[in-house]
Amino acid sequence: MRILILLLFCSLSAKAQYIINPYVFGTTSGFTPDTASFNMSLTAISVSGWNNLYGDPEDDTLSIVDATTGIGISTRAPSRWIGLSGAAASQTGGETTANPSFIWPSNLVLTYHFSNDIAVADGEEQYEVTGLDALGWYTVQIMGSRDNSAVSQASRNCDYIIKHNGTRIVSSPFNVKQNTANLYEITNIQATSDGKIWIGGKGSNNVTSSVYAYFGGIRIIQQEAEL
Predict the structure, then answer these.
(1) pTM for the whole thing?
(2) CATH number among 2.60.120.430, 1.10.520.20, 3.40.1620.10, 3.40.50.880, domain 35-222
């Protein structure tokens, strides 16, 4: 298991929390990976090349399947989401100003699902991914963003969680405040025998009232084998 990194330029106000790897999946052997990209929002939004999982996960179980790959993602029981003011999704809360650039489309960065969790128990992860190859290997990328003007604290950190084939990984804190250029990425995620993994997150700030996990986009990339 390893997290691969590539340095991204960042402004003085937003230091890189995670760095993205330049690995080109399988091109040396002619392997073309299945890639499924999902963006999260409160109401429907069109982002070219992305599957929009929209709605309030605190109210309903939401799901969508990528038509090309058959990979799907769904929110789990509404009880696993803790919203704010009656909602666990936002259409306008992400950063609007490039810092220093948008690694994913700017209208994707603007929207997200979120949960006011300080702890997420094993088995309580907020998303389920299906349609993966049995025991296949994948890379997972996650992006979260929060508008700088809406956050009084110096940072807005969350820990991302990946559960796969008997293993559970919790990231170190990822700062979403003013983030437009950084992703959390992890390789060598192995699907279960029925082609599933689970993704979650929890807040990791010390200020309890500001402990949120943010999910603006999730991308699943097939690997040819374990890296």
Answers:
(1) 0.88
(2) 2.60.120.430
